[in-house]
């Protein structure tokens, strides 16, 4: 499975940003991507049918490869499009409201991919308005079972091997967990780069918390249904439903009870359609995925496994 030889020097990276109606903040993400000191890279922006001034930014950034869609395709479509581009070994995904805090973050991450072909993905650490700078993590890299989508690097050929991102009925939620579970089931490593930060601004522009949560609840249940081995399927579904209601009950900023119930309803409707093909992972892969959650064990290269 890991017999393919990769170029161990200067892997080519596509930094891809998907955007919709966030012209006000998009420039920070683009500037951050362009300022990365890793030389063998290209920066692409997928304009997902924006109706604001996003198209006007193209003339300001002629060094960026712009892909504009006349109709909204969604984030997963764009990420899959990026990873299907030929000539790139790695895809670095950056949200349109996220940016690197240091110019050498990408270079540091690429070194790990160059040295170990078992590595499928590396997620950067995150800072946002709720994070405390006093709790900045010591820089190390550890094993995990998923990454945060707004800042990560993934090996394109491996992502294609396991089927890229699978579309779900909701527009948001669980896509990273779904892909990472399949990567782990195929005996690849997913790592977290602790202390190597991407800032996630979490702008309210084009963000509806209630709809986002409803979508996330539905997709989380779809993810469990699609990938969980039959032996663990019913406990996994019931556990997720309970956890979703507990999260909604304990969320202090706004009421999420209604959107949680609607998300569960959306899942049940989806179950009654003909689009419920299950492709469960192996029991071994599922157990490994569960064990790697909050694993925290430091990656030590060839001595790790």
Descriptive account of the structure:
The protein folds into 2 domains: 13-200, Spore Coat Polysaccharide Biosynthesis Protein SpsA, Chain A, CATH 3.90.550.10; 209-277, no CATH class. The two termini are 16 Å apart. It is globular. Strands 1, 2, 3, 4, 5, 6, 7, 8 and 9 form a 9-stranded mixed sheet that branches. It has helices at residues 23-34, 75-83, 105-115, 156-161, 175-185, 209-227, 233-250, 257-271, 283-292; strands at 13-19, 41-48, 65-69, 90-94, 98-100, 119-127, 140-143, 151-155, 189-200. The longest helix has 19 residues, at 209-227. It contains 9 helices and 9 strands. With 305 residues, the protein is an alpha/beta fold. Helix 6 (209-227) packs antiparallel against helix 7 (233-250) and helix 7 (233-250) packs antiparallel against helix 8.
How is this structure best summarized?
The protein is α/β, with parallel strands linked by helices and 305 residues long.
Layout of strands and helices, then pairs:
Elements (H helix, E strand, L loop, with lengths): L12 E7 L3 H12 L6 E8 L16 E5 L5 H9 L6 E5 L3 E3 L4 H11 L3 E9 L12 E4 L7 E5 H6 L13 H11 L3 E12 L8 H19 L5 H18 L6 H15 L11 H10 L13
Parallel strand pairs: 1-2, 1-4, 2-3, 6-9
Antiparallel strand pairs: 4-8, 5-9, 6-8, 7-9
Helix pairs in contact: 5-9, 6-7, 6-8, 7-8
